[in-house]
Amino acid sequence: MTFDLKQHLAARTESVEAVLDRALSGTASHGETARPPRLVAAMRHGALNGGKRLRPILVWETASLFGRSDDGVVRAACALELIHCYSLVHDDLPAMDDDDLRRGQPTVHKAFDEATAILAGDALLTLAFDVIAEDAVHHDAAIRLRLSRDLARAAGVGGMAGGQMLDLESEHRPRTEADIRLLQSMKTGALLRYACRAGALLADAPTADVDRLTRFGEVIGLAFQLADDLLDVEASPEAAGKATGKDADAGKATLVGLWGVEKTRGELACLREEAAALLAPYGDRADILGALAGFIVSRTS
Ligand code: IPE
Ligand code: IPE
Ligand code: MG
Ligand code: MG
Ligand code: MG
Known about the structure:
Layout: H1 5-23, H2 37-47, H3 54-65, H4 71-91, E1 101-102, E2 105-106, H5 108-111, H6 114-132, H7 141-155, H8 160-169, H9 177-202, H10 207-234, H11 237-240, H12 255-259, H13 261-279, H14 287-298
The protein binds 3-methylbut-3-enyl trihydrogen diphosphate (2 copies) and magnesium ion (3 copies).
């Protein structure tokens, strides 16, 4: 029987969503006082609404490459997904990209209200650090600490949030290729880089492999945002599950805006080759990661 990648990824997605579902229960954890139902509902709307779960699957597949695939890996993977979901809730706010549609549904501030969406984002972000601190994530507390610190750095002022700042500051201003590469490596690249690095760290991979997978994460991170910016130009809102055709109007600094569609496609093909070369030493053990890189390059949603 041949390996069914689609079925494999569907099973991964289901496990990730089961852990997210439990983390986002209405019952207060030990040490919490109470969970206001409206805030829980808004967080669930932002996190359990049909994302591709690419980041947690990358954590899981990278850890699997080095022989670890247990429940603790899924928890660490979900911590990253919670951060990603928070970033989307805030990215869609009227003060940021002002979007009404996300994953084919009303954005959190549309389904609830702006103040609730801000709090839902705050609480998703905070919950991520609760989830990654769990003992099951790694038997060695020093590794858990390292994963937490790296996650904070990928998400915060020098990572995703910093990249969002550069993105907003770049609106309607001419930007060089280097400026745009920097902002993309932070706003999108940092979390994807972390996904692949964390997977290797969770599995106690040798330093050279952690570095190789970190580079793999950087390459697919750039490819991911190039594909997102192409979708904004080319996809329908129905296919993308979010409004498209907005970046140019909003004056967003993107490489597609700078290079045009054809050059961007060429760059994506080069990034796919670079990603494949980074995985080559692992042979067919890295087939799933290779397929994920291919999906990122040619994705339609
Ligand atoms: C969208 O990310 C936001 C960007 C970083 C460009 P995804 O395309 O991974 O969104 P979901 O999680 O599948 O909805
Ligand atoms: C957002 O980039 C990256 C985040 C940190 C959320 P975009 O603003 O291009 O993402 P979409 O197109 O709204 O998903
Ligand atoms: Mg944005
Ligand atoms: Mg946006
Ligand atoms: Mg976009």
